[in-house]
Amino acid sequence: MIKARVLLVAISFCLLLSSCTQLDVFEKDATIPQYLWADTFKPTFNFDITDTTVQYKLFIVVRHTDAYRYDNIWLNIGSKFPGDTMSYQKLELQLGNDATGWDGNGMDDIWEVRKPIARGAFRAGKYTFSIGQIMRENPLPNIMSVGVRIEKVRN
Fold first, then answer.
1. In CATH, what number is assigned to the domain containing residue 83?
2. Kind plus residue range of the DSSP H or E element containing 17
3. pLDDT at residue 15 tops 90
4. Is residue 10 part of a domain?
5. Residues 93 and 141 sit within 8 Å (Cβ to Cβ)
6. Cis preceding linkage at 116, omega within 30
7. Would 30 be classed as within a structural domain?
8. Helix (H) or strand (E) run with residue 10 in it
9. pLDDT: which is higher, 7 or 82
10. How many domains is the chain built from?
11. Any domain includes 5
12. What's the pLDDT tens digit per position in 30-77?
């Protein structure tokens, strides 16, 4: 009886602490239809930066199945900063290698990898990012979702 009460108090305390914590993170992903990523499907993500007193990290997030047959993925990243026009950059992301297997976190046959692509101060305003795949295989099978994650850098 006493152990159950102590456990209940400990769980309640943890929930109280976690509910008061601000994450300072924006994360959005788009599901790839039927896990076949056509080169014409280019999800777009919008977010606003209001706090310019801190630095941010920008990540690309890719979720794939264990059946994905490459250890990398080539992406065409579109970015539009406040007051600018959309510009594009080709980017290769390593998803794993033969020696150590898949990067990121996995559960059963699903893997998620977050790769940092930028870090620094961002000016206030609305940002837009688009992500397209530019692999030779089209549509690209076994990619489940793709997205962006922005988090404040903790010193």
1. 2.60.120
2. helix 2-19
3. no
4. no
5. no
6. no
7. yes
8. helix 2-19
9. 82
10. 1
11. no
12. 999 999 999 999 999 999 999 888 899 999 999 999 999 999 999 999
